[in-house]
Amino acid sequence: MKIAVIADPHFHDINHRQGVGVGDGVAIRTLADTAASTRVFNESYHATRALLDDIVRRGISLVVVAGDLTDDGQQSTMVAATALLDDYSRRFGLRFVATPGNHDLYAIRGRHQSKRFLNADGSHTLVTSDPAMGQGDSVERIVSDEMYCGGYGTAIPALGAFGFFRRDGDLHWECPFGTDDRLEARTFEIVSADGQTVRRMIDASFLVEPVEGLWLLSIDANVFEPRNGDLDPKLEKSYLDSTDAGWNSMLRNKGFVFDWMADVAARAKASGKRLIAFSHYPIIDPLNGTSTDEAKLLNDTSFLRRTPNPEVSRVAAATGIKIHFSGHLHINDTAVFRDGDDFLVNIAVPSMVGFPPAYKIVDIGGARLDVETVTIADVPGYDAAFPYYRIEAARDGVSAAVTEAASHADFLSRHLAEMVRHRYLPKEWPQDLARLVPQLSLGDLNAFAATSRPLTVEDAGVIIGREQNGALAALPFFEVVVDWYRLRKGREIALDFIDANRIAAYRQTAQRYAAGSWPRGSLQDRLGSFMRMMMDWHDSQPSRDFSIDLATGEVSSGNHLGRTVRRQTGAA
User: Fold this and answer.
1) Do 240 and 224 contact (CB within 8 A), yes or no?
2) Class of residue 93 by CB neighbours under 10 A (exposed 0-12, middle 13-18, buried 19+)
3) pLDDT-based confidence at 19, cuts 50/70/90?
4) Do 134 and 143 contact (CB within 8 A), yes or no?
5) In what side-by-side order are the strands of the sheet with 368-375?
6) What whole-number distance in Å separates Cα of residue 31 and Cα of residue 369?
7) In terms of DSSP H, where are the helices of 327-407?
8) What confidence tier does 331 reach under pLDDT thresholds 50, 70, 90?
9) How confident is the model at residue 200 (pLDDT cuts 50, 70, 90)?
10) pLDDT in tens, 282-303
11) CA-CA distance, 412 to 8, in Å (whole number)?
12) Count of beta carbons in the 10 Å neighbourhood of residue 371
């Protein structure tokens, strides 16, 4: 039997502008907001359909959704997203089993959302659920309840058809609290760090057996911990956002879920059930061995903040669940954690609204689990928003080069370059390195590596332009950085978007840095970390198609013999 695992559709209905019908009825988010975001918005409308169509063509009927089905949990978006899945269930017999993501709900009472939508002349209108939200530089402000993101009490019933409640035909259903699927029977106490504030929260985890012999374990890894102080429980600011918390907060606040996971795993083994676990968040370090280098190069990044610590992975591995699928980070990654005889494999599933656009197909049977990574490059209607982007860009006097994309995948690759320009460099890179990036070429990096004297960023100017040898010496360092992020997010899939000659040149540069030795914090030391991570992501991943030995956790590649998945150990 095969199942599809998809993550982070972030579905947005481009035909419905929340709260009002404007002009021709389109609801196109601005290009400016898209360029600054970790995902694209408008393209999700056609990309989600293309994804589901591909699954239907392959004859797969069971689909796991690893969180963030919706754009931001807006009420009207939730209606549109669930209606789309219901339509594919009705027409093609698809069965969806989901877990909630951080964009699908917020705590018990929910939170406000505000979005900017393009008008025909390239200006934008702000639509918000918050009456106190200012208009900003939008030409109009519309307040609409349809923009509000619900909490557990409204979001889980809206997603109810996707496994959150028992349904006819299920061979087994349970949750950490027993077999009662009512939300009021699935609550627990969560306490602020200072121990002074106690809230009642819902956990939406469940176990379902949709077909004979297959147990799907949906783990609700959202944690909404109250902030210190007796704050109004209805307000967003009263809780720590689950976005960066993930499994680290699970260990502190939802220990009962780990106990339940261990019990489920033991029963699955005893009864011969194939157990597949999934949650929205990775349960193993998604950088999988390069976190130290990233911390040295970039200090605090969103990736590092969202990295599960080794103790979390150790406790999770001890439960015996073995296989876990995750979303959230929009990356293609497979990691293995080992602690004595315990092991845990985390398979990170990409998103159709972030580079690279792909999903996973899992072949369940025998002593091995076979996983195929499917890239969907072509999406009919991928350019539906491009005419609006061009009008906006002309009005604002900025580039609309992303609209020259030849496919959906090409658009996401170009969008990643814009993310590097507008988000990663200004917000995550140290200012001195970020200022240097536009000034350098690949040849300059080689010249730095050939300099035995440790350099500072201020020293770089006297060496820039010194090395001109090599076909790619003039390649801008900015392009190298974009390829670095492509490999960071896509691993082997990124090779479809990076010329092989570039990879060969990057390897030569990395080898130059590996052969040298400089003091910690020097320019060469920092760039050496950069190149080392790049090659590690290139070399240390299994191929698109790989197989997992369920007895040992060994991962073998289907296409590239000699490549091995990176591993972590309990002592890491």
Assistant:
1) yes
2) exposed
3) low
4) no
5) 95-98, 62-65, 2-6, 358-365, 368-375, 545-549, 555-557
6) 41
7) 386-396
8) very high
9) very high
10) 999 877 677 778 887 887 777 7
11) 15
12) 24
Please tell me whether residue 147 adopts helix, strand or coil conformation: helix
Question: Cα separations (Å) of 566 from 197, 289, 542, 556, 572?
Answer: 41, 7, 9, 11, 12
Q: Would you say 128 and 141 are in contact if contact means Cβ atoms under 8 Å apart?
A: yes
H/E stretch holding 555? strand 555-557
Contact 116, 137 (CB under 8 A): no
Contacts of 396 (CB under 8 A, 6+ apart): 32, 122
Q: Is 80 exceeded by the pLDDT of residue 78? A: yes
What does DSSP say about strands 62-65 and 2-6: parallel, antiparallel, or unpaired?
Answer: parallel
Query: Model-level pTM greater than 0.90?
Result: yes
Residues in the chain: 572
Percent of the chain past pLDDT 90, that is, above it, reads 81
β-strand 567-569 against 333-339: which pairing, if any?
Answer: parallel
In the beta sheet, which residues pair with residue 567?
A: 336
| Distances 377 to 358, 359, 412, 444, 562 between C-alpha atoms, Å | 8, 12, 10, 34, 27
The predicted structure's pLDDT at residue 542: 65
The full set of domains in the chain, from first to last, is 2-375 (3.60.21.10), 429-539 (no CATH)
CA atoms within 13 A on the CB side of 537: 29
Q: pLDDT at position 20, please? A: 53
pLDDT digits (tens, 9 = 90+) for 390-427: 999 999 999 999 999 999 999 999 999 999 999 999 99
**What gap in Å lies between CA 278 and CA 68, rounded to an integer?**
13
Measured CA to CA, the distance from residue 261 to residue 318 in angstroms comes to 10
With H, G, I as helix, E, B as strand and everything else as coil, classify residue 217: strand
Per-residue DSSP letter, 283? S
Whether omega for the bond prior to residue 430 falls within 30 degrees of 0, making it cis, is: no
